[in-house]
Write a structure and sequence with these properties.
Elements: H1 4-29, H2 32-48, H3 50-55, H4 59-84, H5 88-91, H6 105-114, H7 117-127, H8 133-140, H9 144-169
Helix pairs in contact: 1-2, 1-4, 2-4, 8-9
Length: 170
Amino acid sequence: MLNQDASRFIENFYFQNYRTLYLHANARLRCRAEAEVALQEAFLVACKKPEELMNSKNPIRWMERTIENIVKHILRERKRTADLFLPFEELVPGQEPSTLDSGSFELIAFCQSVVTKENLAFFLRIAEGSSTFARESERLGIGLHACYKRFERIREKLQTALDEFYKSEV
């Protein structure tokens, strides 16, 4: 728990330097939501290590280094998850996301037999591009990484089920 002096220091530091630190994170990530996540994480670190921040010769530089470490982690995660996800065309061969509408009842019914209706809706919002991981993580009240993981688990279940379905068709 933060003492009153540390709490006041961090609060004042936040209000005085938020814009500068946000611009620093956004310049590296080029994504507003991820930049905000990086800042939140950095301030969590500051709250856990208030003495380091307060006793630093240059508190802004201390926060920038903290943000840099978080940004590196976010970029590694971004690359790792990009390598894991298959393009939608590979997941559902010959089917464009925009053509998945109420006329695709068989495919939707099949997918709903594999994952819940809510998980399928979540998956399709991201796969079709009508939503982003950041928006979905906010909507669900979970972290960005947890959102990636949920999407990947659903994708794997659907991929396995579709592979088995196509094998049985041949």
